[in-house]
Design a protein that fits this description.
homodimer, 3 strands, DNA-binding, mainly alpha, three-stranded antiparallel sheet, 6 helices
Chain lengths: 120, 120
DNA sequence: ATTATATATGAACAATAGCTCATATGTTTA
DNA sequence: TAAACATATGAGCTATTGTTCATATATAAT
């Protein structure tokens, strides 16, 4: 944890020197925080938000999602790929079609809390 | 809600035609979903995640945050601006320094749920 | 008033991300 | 096997974003 090298600092080395150490101790690992940001990136696009929202209501095939969002099959497929990789959605093949559904309860909570914040 | 114009559709107009209508009914407004994505964009960068995390522990001035994250004052200030605009952080001037703190309980919940998902 | 310190901000640049287009893969039906 | 349909994916283009650098603003101290 050698972070104290050649940093620019407030000249007035105010109170917070030990606070700084304490805060640092409570921080999750760099890698975890990076993964966390990666996760939230998936919620950071309105197309993906919409996809998650429609899957809220029901399992749907790619084609139906594309119709619902009035977007191309390709665009939706690309985004589903990202959501799939992050395990936010599951998929199930049925003949030619592939049905997607929400994989996780966290999705609901995260979107819900976001909604609450936005709706104020 | 004229969305049914010249869409590409699954040829096999399968079951979901009414489902599609139903799902559409339950969708929040376009604008809200856009705002929601904008909100999550703020969680979609590890610098901002770190800022929120350190503010978790304590109110801090810009300079201390910069030191904690080992980043430039300018970079932190830019990001605080974004967080401030979204009302995720509050600020309070005290002499030359400006102290930032979390503005909202939602931040904790959202980060917490994200953590749970990542940590599995 | 002048200087120093703390923070904010605009411009520029590199990196990233989302869409389209073309095409590949997988599945069913004729 | 060939054709049709549903989905997946790579390349390319444009738009967006995070950082740095230079500089502006705000407050305090001399």
């Amino acid at each position: 944890m050698e972070k104290q090298e050649d940093l620019e600092r407030c000249e007035s080395v105010h109170i917070h020197q030990d606070l700084v150490a304490q805060v640092n101790a409570g921080m999750p690992d760099e890698e975890i925080l990076y993964d966390l940001a990666e996760l939230f990136k998936l919620f950071a696009d309105s197309t993906r938000i919409k996809i998650l929202y429609v899957l809220f209501a029901s399992e749907l095939c790619v084609c139906d999602i594309a119709q619902l969002l009035n977007m191309s099959q390709s665009a939706i497929s690309h985004q589903l790929r990202a959501l799939k990789q992050a395990k936010l959605v599951r998929y199930r093949r049925e003949g030619k079609q592939v049905f997607y559904s929400l994989a996780d309860g966290h999705v609901r909570t995260i979107l819900g809390q976001g909604m609450e914040h936005v709706a104020e």
